[in-house]
Sequence to fold (316 residues):
Amino acid sequence: MRAGPAANELFLSGHLFIWSINNTMHVERNHMQGDINVITAKPEDVRLMKKLSRIKHTFVVMSGKGGVGKSTVTVNIAVGLAMRGFEVGILDGDIHGPNIPKMLKIEDVQLNADDNGIYPAYVPPHLKIMSMAFLSSNRDQPIIWRGPMKMGALRKFIEDVYWGDLDFLIVDLPPGTGDEPLTIAQLIPDADGSIIVTTPQDVALLDSRKTVVFSEGLKLPVVGIVENMAGLICPHCGKEIDLFKIGGGEKAAKELEVPFLGRVPIDPDVVNTGDEGVPIVAANPDSPAAKAFEGIIARVIEFSEKKGQKEKKSAK
Ligand SMILES: Nc1ncnc2c1ncn2[C@@H]1O[C@H](COP(=O)(O)OP(=O)(O)OP(=O)(O)O)[C@@H](O)[C@H]1O
Ligand SMILES: [Mg+2]
Fold:
């Protein structure tokens, strides 16, 4: 019986890949059927596979519309997972509007590089971040790139970054159904699934439907829908004000037959703590918004565990 993959082997999707010293010749053996095919792959593909083999679970945060709270959801899930002791990475997939470093107040970090690759920004003890924001010298200068350039950058963010071993990689995407989600789905075909963020208005139903169909089209399982900015807790009287209506996200989840992950209320502290670089799950864990994020994090962990069990079963 094999103890596990040797140094020049890795498992992906139930396949065993072996690469030779010069990284150009590969044997792909399908364990389940026992047949062996010799295939060739480019060295950079091998580098990508090697990097991905050290990342246990990838979740992609997406939405149909802009400004609904994807980056906020990303940092709170990532920080919450890191607070539980998991090794976590955030890949800021928003090339034109990279906000993650600002939300963690690390936008002035200078990245180092050596033979291992580019070292991502590090928030001790368990969080690593890679973003376009670290690479542009002028924060006010827009990045004007077409699809292939963006695809190249996202690829480098995985292939050339020294992520090390990660339990979770959370990918924050720009809104809509453009190049970035397509690229991520191609680069990480084994991603666990998508977390779709929406605001609660009725119109959200339409946007969520598009995003769910898009995610499924990319073979990216939908983990569920997060309804963000649902109701405002009045700071004076503590009563809930139904500002953008409540329930659109949950209704969308029901109609689209995907799980509903939870409802995060509007809370001025989400903005304030975000501006301070300490997401609300860490800054004010007892707040209703932080508790809502904790519920979402629990669902994400549950989803990843189920995927792990399925993979174990199919490998037997
Ligand atoms: N639950 C919330 N309560 C209060 N403010 C919130 C909440 N969620 C997000 N925000 C605020 O809304 C603004 C937009 O959030 P965020 O940047 O996370 O959205 P986004 O979907 O990533 O936007 P984009 O589409 O531009 O990438 C931010 O200022 C954020 O602090
Ligand atoms: Mg964003």
